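User: Predict the full complex structure for these chains.
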Amino acid sequence: MIRIDSLFCGAWTIAVMAFLYIPIVLLMVFSFNSSRLNLSWEGFTTKWYEALLTNRVLLTAFQNSLIVASATTLLSTLLGTLGAWMLYRYRFPFQRLLGLLIFIPMVMPEVLMGVSLLVLFVQFLNIPLGFTTMIIAHTTFCFPFVLVAVQARLQGLDPSQEEAAMDLGATPLQSFWKITLPFLMPAIVSGALMSFTLSLDEYIVSVFTTGSQSQTLPLKVYGMAKVGLNPQLNALSSIFIAATVAVALAGHFIGKKKIL
Amino acid sequence: MIGFASPKGERLPEGAPRRAPSLVAWLILSPLLIWLLLFVVAPTAMLTLVSFAERDSLGRIIWNFNLQNYVRAFDWVWIKILLESVYYAFLTTVICMALGYPTAYFIGRAPERWRGILLMLVMVPFWTSFLIRTYAWINILSKEGLLNSLLISSGLLEEPVAMLYSPFAIVLGLVYNFLPFMILPIYTSVEKLDNAMIEAAYDLGAGPVRAFSKVIIPLTRPGIAAGAMLVFVPSIAMFAITTLMGGGSNPTIGEVIFKQFTSGRNQPFGAALGTLLLIVFIIALWLTHSQRERED
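Assistant: Here is the predicted structure of the two-chain assembly.
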């Protein structure tokens, strides 16, 4: 049955989708425009992409981003997975408070996390700002996402499988390695991909915790966007959009996949 | 759910039997505990501590405890910026609701095989970098941008108009960034709607407007409330978007805090503003939490 209200909502949805996609599509299309300014379409070119390949500053920033994101992902995955497993397996004192503390970095305004970590690093711990401080800061807001993903998956774990393994003589570590870990793998991978993309994209926390040697890509992108239009930035953005969408889609499907 | 029933014929409510932690369990959990204490609890405490300190002419912190930063923070200049930030966040929330509700409703009521694809379409832009999404709008709105050139070449405009660097651009940037946060929770509520309730409203003579306002809206209130919080709270402090789109002419509270810690070189004052923002954040979090408890 088609009613007037569902027609309205359908048209509305199409308009909202257009609102969401038109700016991104235009950005990608004009990254191939040979004119320096956006005023009009002057012809197809890949010169902005070629210019990117020789842009030392951006390539270094990209390399820095990859270093920070990889280290963050590794640390977050370890902290998140082990944490979720322990919190599921045992009843710790103050478990509710612990849950709240894990939840806070996921929802805390980034500017607050940035300034408070900056104060900690500079005033109290005396760690020079750079890769270390950035990786610590990124891990702090990334690992809860791994933990929550793994926790959700653990809800579906059948305890009798682990028990059976142990009845048959496996040590707790062996049963974790052979039974629990394979079962958790989809959640771990999707949490890890989430950490990677979150870290790669982070600007606000980064701007407070970075040093001069550890400038990541978002910091450079921000600087370029602040000045105004730049066709190289269009090209860079298009690559980034394609890459993050690919990684996110992969994470989405791996996370969804049920292993029976 | 996968698996077999436990020997007693009933599923254990929380999966495995929960034991008191052994020493090994404490050891495995300890990195997480240390991380939380060192990088979540301690920094927040330190920020509050610094907010009561002073600074010298070089910007170094002097541990001389007093309330002068807070006295200064309550000056009208800063209160006005905080109120403006809240106002932008409020406008963003209202516009996201207007744009997002019919969309979420349509997706939630669409045939099941369509829902996944439509939701995915809403999520994909959200996965790409927010800086890039903001830059996409700069591309369109700036003086040499696409919209200006389109309007000029079609003869509607004589010369380019400044559309960027205005409150309009700030709110547009925020809406564009946070819209999916509104659509997702409302969608979850709409999906749970009982069709019979809506049919009953129509059968009893309600038109679309009355069915919507008397039945559908009240039933999807939890989703609306969750979406409003998810958009409103982060919008207040999202200074990267507001600076890029506003050009610094209309500073928001996050931008002011950022400046105090960088070019302003007044960390104690920035910490005081940060602590006030933290209090706003805790109140908002507590309100959402108690709202959820009441609805459960």
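Confidence is low (pLDDT under 50) at residues 1-16 of chain B.
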